[in-house]
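Morning run. Coffee first, then this:
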Amino acid sequence: MPDTIDNSNDQETVTEHLLKGGTSFRPDHYLYRVLQPGQDFLEEDGFKTYGQMVAKIKANGKRVILSVGESSTSGWDTSISPVNRERKAKGLLPISAFFRYKNFTDMLRDRVGDEFEVVNAGIPGHTALSGIRRLKMLQKRFARDGIVPSYVLIHYGNNDSLWEANLQDKKHLRLHLHSPAVVEKFRNWRHKRVPDQMVLRSTVGDFGQYFLQMINYARKIGAPPIIVQPEIPIYWKPGSRFVDFDFDQLATKPGAKIALAKLAEAHDIWESVIDKPYSEQKIQALEKAAELDFLVPRIKRPYLQELQRVARATQTPLIQTPVPRDEDEANYFIDYCHPRENVNKRIASMIVDHMHTYEKNPRQ
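And here it is:
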C-alpha cells in the first residue's frame, strides 16, 4: 500500500522523497550545512549529483545558469513541519520539504530550458558568506570539468539578519576549508559568545562585502551576475516558523534576553493592528513588528538597503517583485519568506528580460 498523508485536507500519495535519515541536511563546518550525500543540485522533481549534472551538461551542450542561494532558491515548504510531526507520532518516515511547488529556478527552466541548463545550487539556511564559499567551490570543480556558467543568480539575506544564539557565521564557521584544528580552537576561544548583547549571523557591512565578492567573482569567470532581492510578508505572526520553539530553552542562549524582548515587542505591535482594516498606519506597524522579529528568517531593512546599494554601485541587475500589502499575503507566500509560484513566475520572467538585455548589449 502507498504511504499516504493528509496535507491540508488533500490526500497525497508519497512514493518518494522520504527522509530515511530523518533530515535533509548534514552540518558542515565551512558552509554551515549541506544536503545529504548525492544531493548536490535540485531539479523540479528530484536531486542530481555533481557527476550527473556535469554529464548532463556535456551531453546536451547547453549553456549554464548557476543559481546560488538559500531556501527561496532551492524551494522549501515549512508547512511540512507539522505534517512530519504527525508522521513521526505514527512511526512514519518524514517527507522532504523540497519539490512541493515550483521555485523560481524551476520557472526559469521552463522558460529557457531549450537553450540553458539551469543549475539549482540553493541550500536552505545559507547566508551570503556560505554563498561566496559555495560559488567558489562549485566553480573550481566546474572549471576542472571544462564548464563555465553563462550567468550566476544570487539570492541571500533572510538568514543573514537572523539571531541564532549569537552564532555569527564568520566567527563560528571555519576560516578556510582545511583550516587547522588548532587555529579553529583558538578562534572559538577568542570569539566567545557574549550573553549581554544580540549578535546576528552577519553584520550589515559583512553582508554587503559578501555580495560584492560574489558579484566580482562571477564577473571574473565571465558569468554576468543577477541578484534576486528577497521579498517577505509582513502580516506573518512574529516568531512563528512551523517548528517547535522551546522558549524556556531559548532563554538560556547567549543574546536571548534581547532577542526575546524584541520578539515580545514585535508580538504586541502585531496583535494591536492585525485585525484592523487596511491603512498606511497598519502597514507601518506590521513593518515595524517584522523588523523586531529576529527568530524568523526575514530580511531586515538595513540589509535590504545594503543589498540595493551594492547592486547600484556595481551596476548589477536587481530583481524586485514587491507584493500588494492591502490583501492577504498568503496569496504570494508559502509561509514567512518563501514565495509562491505566482511570484516565482515573475522572478523568472524578469531574469529572462535581463538576460535578453545583456545578450543584445553585453557589458565587459
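The longest strand covers residues 63-69. Good start to the day.
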